[in-house]
Specification:
Structural class of chain B: alpha+beta
Distance between the termini of chain A: 20 Å
Strand order of the largest sheet of chain A: 8-7-10-9-11-12-13
Largest sheet of chain A: 7 strands, mixed
Number of strands of chain A: 13
Distance between the termini of chain B: 42 Å
Radius of gyration of chain B: 26 Å
Helix content of chain B: 25-40%
Shape of chain B: elongated
Strand content of chain B: 25-35%
Shape of chain A: globular
Oligomer: heterodimer
Number of helices of chain B: 12
Largest interface: A-B, 61 and 56 residues
Strand content of chain A: 15-25%
Structural class of chain A: alpha/beta
Radius of gyration of chain A: 18 Å
Helix content of chain A: 25-40%
Number of helices of chain A: 9
Order of helices and strands of chain A: EHEEHEHEHEEEEHEHEHEHEH
Chain lengths: ~290, ~400
């Protein structure tokens, strides 16, 4: 009933001894995620407050504890290096929560990713959750419920809003993913739609986009080309955003008249996607699309 | 972060890009002194962080020092209105006095991030001196691009391709290659997010010269570019936005009447959108961050109420791991600290939301408590219009 992470996921936390890292490690452990190791260079051999063993390197954590997924709570100047370390260690999936990584660093990371078998979610994202099985990131676990709707979003709290609407209508989620608000991210809507297409237990997908870039348009083109049959419901934030201004997220900017919410909504509609005008209607639109 | 043209040209000069002789001037006397130093005809250029300065009357040719005195007097202190400044314009506080060039051809060169290819691209066009967005829309074949491989860098053959695309001739090709290469080095070394030279000119003498310099920097990389901090000109930024950034709040002023305070950028945009959906106009974007406490909420209120157009406030907080009752306590404290004279609609969702709503309703303060996103937007729009939802 999920993509990418489940109850078998063995997680290593990079930056486990920092304020954010230790707080969210406790939250993830409480949710039931198997946090098998932490990494903080220089603190190898210690254990954290949740009794998680700490290693100096990701490679050691993988070797000793059989970790297959990493989550990164490392400050921006060191975060790109943390991602590269996990790619080099050969982890399957890296989830980078850190906001504020320089774009030039991400250009290099993306190159390394393309040459590897590692998948990256983020950066500048809330993380990924398969409800009832595995929570990796900073989202509140309790609003989620297991089910059959996939959620992919460039936002944090707006994702929680959408998930909350779904849960209150009795629609659980297969896996909910925040892809991140930066201009360069590891996994795009398109990358993840392909995984949802292959997941028998995902029956519909919610796509929450925003102004800037062309990730929504690329997803729409793929849906048209391949005849993706699962219903997709979308909302695009920033219909009232002024051009040329960065709306909080580094990637949320209309530049040179490109990447407006209106043009994205139009493109998505043409691909047969159910586009909501109001963010309050995401849940009910999914319910209707599923015939409920 | 943006900088002025004269600051950009100083960076160009450091990297070996030819620029006309020029000096910044903050007063009329400084402008005259600069003109005397340069000699002959000079250009008086208003320095503001917006494009379209020539059309707005901020760029003038002067015959000599007397002419410079007159023009500098006119331009300094004027409110320059361009298509990028909005109707209120931007006050001109600095000038660039620059040697006039004899222009044979006006070209364009720029470096941008190609988000879908995840790398930078250098682009050039023979159609310089006009808005590049217009060229891209009407004659896209006149823009030629080379994508820069992050591992290999910008290669000599790519630079030659671009120089030939600019229809440079003879030894201009070599000079063009040198200029384009230097632009990329300056871009990389300074963590730029955007660079545009419009126009890049070929002079009557056959020299390739940057007559313009637009450089934006990646805010996320400023921590490792300490020299750039000194180039920031706060007077070019909205004072409320500067104030907000001191408290790590993200505020952008808009023209509507419903002030909003939201945690998270995506939800903040969605809140603006739903206000519009219900017939209102958002007064601002304000993201108080993932963790909303009494201090951030109080600062948020102060900043958004600094806008006299605000007739009602909508606070929309989706409590995540931070408990809703704590946030509600923060909002109540903040309302005690800041005198709020307009109706305040509060919508809280997430952890302990019910308890939070009860705290707000039971407090002595006059909140309008809303439940859903829809309910909140309706109530806020109704409050602006002076009635209940």
């Amino acid at each position: 009933m999920s993509i990418l992470v489940d109850k078998h996921t063995r997680l290593v936390v990079q930056g486990i001894t920092g304020t954010e890292g230790s707080f969210h490690t406790a939250q993830m452990v409480e949710y039931g995620t198997q946090v098998v190791a932490g990494v903080t260079p220089g603190k190898g051999g210690q254990t954290d407050t949740n009794n998680v063993p700490i290693y100096n390197t990701v490679a050691q954590a993988k070797e000793s504890r059989d970790a297959n997924v990493a989550v990164i709570f490392v400050p921006p100047p060191f975060a790109a290096d943390a991602i590269l370390e996990s790619i080099a260690a050969g982890l399957e999936l890296v989830v980078c929560i850190t906001e504020g990584i320089p774009t030039a660093d991400m250009v290099k990371v993306k190159l390394a990713l393309d040459k590897s078998d590692t998948r990256l979610i983020g950066p500048n994202c809330p993380g990924i959750i398969t409800p009832g099985a595995c929570k990796i990131g900073i989202m509140p676990g309790f609003i989620h419920t297991p089910g059959k709707v996939g959620v992919i979003s460039r936002s944090g709290t707006l994702t929680y809003e959408a998930v909350d609407q779904l849960t209150k209508l009795g629609l659980g989620q297969s896996t909910a993913i925040g892809v991140g608000g930066d201009p360069i991210i590891g996994s795009t809507f398109l990358d993840l739609l392909k995984l949802y297409a292959a997941d028998d237990d995902t029956e519909a997908v919610v796509l929450i986009g925003e102004i800037g870039g062309s990730a929504e348009e690329e997803a729409a083109a793929w849906i048209t080309e391949t005849g993706f049959t699962k219903p997709v419901v979308a909302f695009i934030a920033g219909q009232t955003a002024p051009p040329g201004r960065r709306m909080g997220h580094a990637g949320a900017i209309i530049s040179g008249g490109q990447g407006t919410a209106q043009s994205k909504m139009e493109t998505l509609r043409q691909a047969g996607i159910h586009v909501c005008d109001s963010p309050a209607k995401i849940g009910e639109t999914v319910k209707q699309a599923l015939g409920g | 972060m943006k900088i002025h043209e004269y600051q950009g040209k100083a960076i160009f000069a450091d990297f070996g890009v030819a620029v006309p002789e020029g000096y910044p001037a903050f007063t009329v006397d400084e402008a005259v002194a600069a003109a005397k130093k340069i000699g002959g005809k000079v250009i008086v250029k208003a320095q503001i962080h917006a494009g379209g300065r020539g059309k707005g009357g901020g760029v003038k040719l002067a015959d000599g020092p007397d002419d410079v005195r007159r023009l500098a007097g006119e331009i300094l202190g004027m409110r320059l209105v361009t298509h990028q400044t909005g109707a209120e314009g931007q006050e001109v506080q600095r000038l660039l006095i620059e040697k006039a060039s004899s222009i044979a051809r006006e070209l364009y060169a720029g470096i941008v991030l190609d988000r879908s290819k995840a790398c930078y691209a250098m682009m050039v066009s023979t159609e310089g001196g006009v808005e590049i967005e217009k060229v891209a829309a009407e004659t896209p074949e006149k823009i030629v691009k080379e994508w820069i491989d992050p591992a290999l860098g910008l290669q000599p053959y790519q630079l030659r391709n671009l120089a030939y695309a600019l229809e440079l001739k003879g030894k201009q090709v070599k000079e063009g290659v040198k200029v384009l290469k230097a632009l990329w080095r300056a871009f990389e070394a300074n963590d730029c997010s955007l660079m545009e030279i419009n126009p890049l000119v070929v002079t009557e003498e056959g020299e390739v010269l940057a007559l313009d310099a637009k450089l934006n920097f990646d805010d996320n990389a400023l921590f490792r570019q300490p020299d750039l901090a000194g180039l920031r000109d706060m007077s070019e930024e909205d004072p409320n936005e500067v104030e907000a950034s001191k408290y790590s709040l993200n505020y952008i002023k808009l023209d509507g009447t419903v002030g909003c305070m939201v945690n998270g950028a995506g939800l903040a945009m969605a809140t603006m959108d739903i206000i519009k959906y219900h017939g209102g106009e958002p007064a601002n974007f304000l993201d108080v961050g993932g963790v909303a406490n009494a201090e951030t909420v109080a600062n948020g209120f102060r900043i958004l109420l600094g806008d006299p157009n605000v007739k009602a406030v909508l606070v929309n907080i989706f409590g995540g791991i931070v408990r809703g009752d704590r946030i509600a306590g923060g909002i109540i404290d903040a309302m005690g600290q800041v005198k709020v004279k307009v109706p305040v609609v509060v919508r809280m969702e997430g952890t302990n939301a019910e308890q939070a709503r009860k705290m707000l309703a039971d407090s002595s303060l006059d909140f309008i408590v809303a439940t859903t996103l829809d309910d909140a937007a309706r109530k806020a729009v109704a409050a602006v219009k002076g009635g209940p939802a």
